[in-house]
Amino acid sequence: MKRKHTILGKPRIAYHGRIYTITEVPAHLPDGRKMTFEYVHRVPTVVILAFDAKRRLILTREYKEMRRGFVWHLPVGKIEKGHTAKAAAQKELREEAGFKAKKLWLFHQTPQHFAWPLFGFIASGLIPSRLPGDPGEDIRPVPTSLKKAEQLALTGKLDDPFLAYLVAKAAYLVRTKGWQALL
């Protein structure tokens, strides 16, 4: 009987940076051919959907050099080694939006087998508390109605697909279950 699955060999790191690592993995296909698979891995990352007392989502306008302009975004950052996702979320919220959250809960997590571990948090009970951001960042918080944020997500103006998904998911939950589903 013919083998049905690809057999992977030993991975080799082709590139290792601060945020991304690319591995190459030799593969033997079921039909006998050989090829190399390439996988992109990202450091574990947090995304924060922070809501102020008026139930506005704190979006950000972030300058992106490759775009030569500002893009719509959410507070996002990597989880440093030895830190929890929740601690990283508080830190990024303070750096990028200027707030600390009294309440912070895990809203979404990518499955464990993903090469891009992402943790989405809902933050509320916001208290002004700014930390300095990373060098070179130009990030400006913009309190935005959830309806407008959802439109930015659905029309591609919030162009990161994972961020757009989280905003659309939050808006859907509020529409179908009310604000108590989030806050």
What's a concise summary of this model?
By secondary structure, the chain is an alpha+beta fold. It contains three helices and eleven strands, in the order E-E-E-E-E-E-E-E-H-E-E-E-H-H.
Q: What labels would you give this structure?
A:
single chain; 183 residues; alpha+beta; Nucleoside Triphosphate Pyrophosphohydrolase; 4-stranded antiparallel sheet; 4-stranded mixed sheet; 3 helices; 11 strands
Number of strands: 11
Largest sheet: 4 strands, antiparallel
Could you say which overall geometry the principal axes of the C-alpha atoms support?
Answer: elongated
Strand content: 35-45%
How are helices and strands ordered from N to C?
EEEEEEEEHEEEHH
- Count of helix runs: 3
- Report how far the terminal alpha carbons are from each other: 56 Å
CATH classification, class level of the largest domain: Alpha Beta
* Structural category: alpha+beta
CATH topology label of the largest domain: Nucleoside Triphosphate Pyrophosphohydrolase
Total individual domains: 2
CATH superfamily of the largest domain: Nucleoside Triphosphate Pyrophosphohydrolase
CATH architectural label of the largest domain:
Alpha-Beta Complex
In words, what does this structure look like?
With 183 residues, this protein is α+β, with helices and mostly antiparallel strands. It has two domains: 7-42; 45-177, Nucleoside Triphosphate Pyrophosphohydrolase. Helix content is 21%, strand content 42%. The chain is built from three helices and eleven strands. The strands form three sheets. Strands 1, 2, 3 and 4 form a four-stranded antiparallel beta sheet that branches. Helix 2 packs across helix 3 (161-177). The chain is elongated and about 65 Å long.
